[in-house]
Amino acid sequence: MTAVRLALSELKRLAAGRMPRLAILAMALIPTLYAGLYLFANHDPYGNLDQVPAAVVVQDEGTTTTDAQTGEKTERDFGRDVADQLLDDGGFGWVETSQVDAEAGVRSGRYDAALVIGPTFSADLASAGEFEPQQASLTLITNDANNYLAGTISDQIVGQVRDSIAEQVGTEAADTFLRGFASIHTNLADAVDGAKQLLGGATRLDDGLADADDGAHRLADGAQRAADGATTLDGKVGTLADAVGQLDDGAGQLASGLGELQSKTKDLPAQTEKLADGAAQVADGNAQVARYGHEAADAAGQVLPTLDGARADAKDAFDGAQDDIRQRIDDRVAAVCADVPADQQEQCEAIAAQVVDEARAGIDEQLGAAQQDVDAALDAQRQDVQSAVTKVEGASKQLDTLADGSRQVADGAATLAGATPQLTAGIGSAADGADRLADGTGQLAAATPALTDGVHRLADGTGQVAGGAADLAAGTTKLADGAGELKAGTSELRDGLAQGLGQIPDVDDETREDTASTIGNPVEVKDESLSSAGTYGGGLAPFFLSLATWIGAYVLFLLVRPLSVRALAAGRSGLATALGGWATPAAIGVVQVAAMFAVTKFALDIQPAYGLGTALFLVLVSGTFVAVLQALNVWLGAAGQFLGLVLMLVQLVTAGGTFPWQTIPQPLKAMHQFMPMTYAVEGLRQLLYGGNLATVSRDVTVLVGVLVVALGLTTLAARRQRVWSVTRLQPELVL
């Protein structure tokens, strides 16, 4: 109980008189005043930022944006939006003004910061949508001569504004981008339908060109048969010309003979036998000529139907092929583009026309040229053949008449000998018939060259027709092959468009809006705090409470003696003397932390998570700090008192009370683990904010260890000081 009596004795000594009691009261309240004033001043500085003057300058001229899907134009003024956001709730007390006033105000200290929104701010923000990207910028004017933290806070506020604008612009850009995907998906779906229809048309075109190819080959075969017939006719006409020449010669001889016979009737009986022989020869020749004439007439008659058939076949083939192909192409173009939206009609027709123009042009050119050649050749040849047939038929009839007449002449000549009285009349008739025969054979001879020339031209024309028909057949074959390739290409186009359609996202409006919002703000920071200080002042409380406790312990030894001189002189034990010297300031320290804890909790409204634990921990911290300062004073005297102040300054920067201790320079970082205030700050953080009690247990263990070590050192010093020396009786330095 010696230590308790020593403590009570020291308290009586300190409380003897009014001024000592006031001094004790002042020392008890110093930690409360220190910690209370600091925490009160820094309780919630961010909540009063609206009292900090700041200027905002809006120079933005705005811009016009165009909706890529609808083409609608919208006037945008992002600078005005930023200014309105700051003026409404921008942290500082923002005032809108001019740039000159803002710069002058920041320079003079009237404004702590100024934000300038340039003329092209909106245009730069919207430039990415026009594929001419320009980074928009804000100009922040600060002056550290006014307040360094004000500039730092301004950076944070402007950064938040920038992030908000970036999120808004990014969300709008992403929404526009996704809307474009939706438009592409719709248009591509229409393109897939159009490709399917185009494939159907290409299939029908392929089938139609296959039919046209068959018709062209049939036309070529018919034209070749007509050419062969015309060549055969040409060969037979050559024989007819020789026969007609012989007939003409015979008719001339007959006419001459009958004329001479008529003039020489008197010699008729003597020449009757000769006349009969000649008439028989003439009859045979006339019969042969008549036969040749019939053959020529029959051949010519066969040519005309062949030509007419060839012309009809050619015309039907040309007309059918051309009409069918044109109709199929026109129907296909109309079918392909009929279902396409009105705003894409021209594009569809251009695409379809581009695909079929080459095929249609080739078909029209070849069919038109071939039909003109065939028609021209057939028209010319038929006219010539018709004229020749008419002449051959007339000549054939005359040849029949001539044959009949020559036969009559032969019969008359045979009976002439027995019918001399009737000879004169018969000779006259024969002379007349011979004249007519001569006229007919002359006409026949005159017509035969024309017939021969016409048949030659017919043979040449039908040959040309056959060649053109063969070219037409080859051309339609190429067209049919091209139509097959068109069909295959259209099928690949349809499959490719369908595959591309499956790769383009098609989302509803809600999903698009959610996706755009996520793209504009891809990262959300969720504040999941394991423990919270609540306010800025609450965050600083562990540091200021620890520091105030050290200051409270420090000032106690300005009044309280670290060891009782009477106890030392009386030879008391070192432990009892040390505890007696520690107990008095420790008891006052309990009053100090009690007052400080009450003000912190009830006046400043900083509510500890563990109230009783915090109070008891503060008592331990105060007792530990008292023991450390007592040991310094006992061992070093006035130098120890000064060293206590130095130690406070070192702990001030090494305890990690404001910034994390890892940020301090390396020489100071090495002392962090050895300073008792480090564990005081750490323990108070866990108790005030509801942290890890295991950490508190470690801190308590360390502080108790420091307390024991300090008391042990004081005990050791007390034992040594029971022996008085000159230095103790007359110290070199007295405070």
From TrEMBL:
<feature type="transmembrane region" description="Helical">
    <location>
        <begin position="610"/>
        <end position="635"/>
    </location>
</feature>
<protein>
    <submittedName>
        <fullName>ABC transporter</fullName>
    </submittedName>
</protein>
<feature type="domain" description="ABC-2 type transporter transmembrane">
    <location>
        <begin position="507"/>
        <end position="714"/>
    </location>
</feature>
<feature type="transmembrane region" description="Helical">
    <location>
        <begin position="700"/>
        <end position="718"/>
    </location>
</feature>
<feature type="transmembrane region" description="Helical">
    <location>
        <begin position="540"/>
        <end position="560"/>
    </location>
</feature>
<feature type="transmembrane region" description="Helical">
    <location>
        <begin position="581"/>
        <end position="604"/>
    </location>
</feature>
<dbReference type="InterPro" id="IPR017501">
    <property type="entry name" value="Phage_infect_YhgE_C"/>
</dbReference>
<dbReference type="Pfam" id="PF12698">
    <property type="entry name" value="ABC2_membrane_3"/>
</dbReference>
<feature type="transmembrane region" description="Helical">
    <location>
        <begin position="21"/>
        <end position="41"/>
    </location>
</feature>
<dbReference type="InterPro" id="IPR017500">
    <property type="entry name" value="Phage_infect_YhgE_N"/>
</dbReference>
<dbReference type="InterPro" id="IPR023908">
    <property type="entry name" value="xxxLxxG_rpt"/>
</dbReference>
<keyword id="KW-0472">Membrane</keyword>
<dbReference type="InterPro" id="IPR051328">
    <property type="entry name" value="T7SS_ABC-Transporter"/>
</dbReference>
<feature type="transmembrane region" description="Helical">
    <location>
        <begin position="642"/>
        <end position="661"/>
    </location>
</feature>
<keyword id="KW-0812">Transmembrane</keyword>
<keyword id="KW-1133">Transmembrane helix</keyword>
<dbReference type="InterPro" id="IPR013525">
    <property type="entry name" value="ABC2_TM"/>
</dbReference>
